Amino acid sequence: QVQLVESGGGLVQAGGSLRLSCAASISINAMGWYRQAPGKQRELVAAITTGGTTRYGEFVKGRFTISRDNAKNTVYLQMNSLKPEDTAVFYCYAGVIWTIPLSWGKGTLVTVSS
Question: Which one, out of 6, 14, 15, 18, has a CA that is 20 to 30 A from the CA of 84?
Fold first, then answer.
């Protein structure tokens, strides 16, 4: 099973930026991020394949950018123009295809204050 280690969460003011990182123990095609806010279902934030194909949740609307360093088996999520409603636990995931997560990270909390 792929081990995933996340970093980069924290507290930021509305309008600010954060960058999340997730390092995988092995190379795997699809990596990305889901998030779960209190009382809500987990939802896809962004995903990227080793070939660079990306997918974003509809709510992202150009504010977030996902990228990866295949040599380091690491994916990054640059989040700009953060809003209080972005407050959630962000979970890194990995899979053979982006639609089916096989492994999950422990999650990192992102809190956006108004």
Answer: 6
